[in-house]
Amino acid sequence: MSRFALDRLCARLPDAVLETHDFRGDETAVVRRASIKDVMRFLRDDPEVCCEMLTDLTCVDYLGRDPRFEVVYHLHSLSKRHRLRVKAGVPESDPTIDTVTDLWATAGWLEREVWDFYGVRFSGHPDLRRILMYEEFVGHPLRKDYPVDKRQPLFRRPDLEPNLGQWKNDGT
Amino acid sequence: MSASAQAPEFHTSRFEDAVNWARKYSLFQYPFVTACCGMEFMAVAGPRYDIARFGAEFPRFSPRQADLLIVVGTVTERQAPVLRRIWEQMTEPKWVVAFGVCASSGGFYQNYSVVPGIDHVVPVDVYIPGCPPRPEAVLDGLIMLQERIQRGEGHSQRALVVESQAEARGPALRAGLPVVR
């Protein structure tokens, strides 16, 4: 379906692409972590590929593998009508990758979600806070080594907390 | 009145019975609906099962005007302080019903985000099991709650008795009785 997009990407940024494959018409490019910004900018701005829309940005924890994490981007071209998947491995020792919030504003919340649940930091993100869990939460619960039944109760004692109207998660 | 002065316990007890009888047939509920159990709650509240037959038909959407907190659905850890705060805003005497297995025990959730039963956060008077419970089960639970109210066994009712009696007879009575705050 979008084999041509992978070919264009390989021709333009040969050093960035580690591997490409497709499964029943779903094309995927595995790219170097350091080149993610260049790759994504090319895929968005190239007049033939033209992926205007970032459908999803998520992460997979392959515990025991190196690199342990894999940040996955799903792209969609509204004008050319094709889809593309981009993956970038992120090692456990240095779980950081460049943000794409300057290319797609929607990446802001998606990257916060990946940080919240997997602990992958996005360098350059303007506001990298937890998005679904509370600030007091310790750890990243969707990591494979997070205990499945571990609880971190969020209790606030009103008698110890005089300012009841202000909650930390209100963004104050 | 001279008879009541001689036997205050007797008259106090009968008065409690009368008050509890009035309370159990005029429950003002606050539905804290978070999940799919809300559909069954609507069925109970609607005309087919008609919770109005039990004097509990009127939902108040301010906790300050309600005395029955019905927690319908899953409560997350992040939501738990909110639930606690709503419960604290209700005036006493007040009762809490855990509607469905998620509110009762966390249900099939056993993970980082779900409270395993709202009794970790607020005292519960009646648990209604089911995923979701049938409307008949809800009405059965409501009748059980009314029986508890009549007997003065609600958590906050016991606390009120303790407070008033402790005031009259000193703190010795207070030991051994549950106090809910």
Descriptive notes:
- The complex is a heterodimer of chains A (about 170) and B (about 180).
- With about 170 residues, chain A is an alpha/beta fold.
- Chain A has helices at about 5-10, 35-45, 105-120, and strands spanning about 15-25, 25-30, 55-60, 70-75, 80-90, 95-100, 120-125.
- Chain A has one domain (about 5-130): Beta Polymerase, domain 2 (2-Layer Sandwich).
- Chain A is elongated, with a radius of gyration of 19 Å.
- Chain B contains seven helices and four strands; from the N terminus they run H-H-E-H-E-H-E-H-E-H-H.
- Chain B has helices spanning about 1-5, 10-25, 35-45, 80-90, 100-105, 135-150, 155-170, and strands at about 30-35, 70, 95-100, 125-130.
- In chain B, strands 1-2-3-4 form a four-stranded parallel β-sheet.
- The longest helix of chain B has 17 residues, at about 10-25.
- By secondary structure, chain B is an alpha/beta fold.
- Mean pLDDT of chain B is about 80; it is low at about 170-180.
- Chain B has a single domain (about 1-150), classed as 3-Layer(aba) Sandwich (Rossmann fold), CATH 3.40.50.12280.
- Chain B is globular.
- At the A-B interface, loops of A face helix 4 of B.
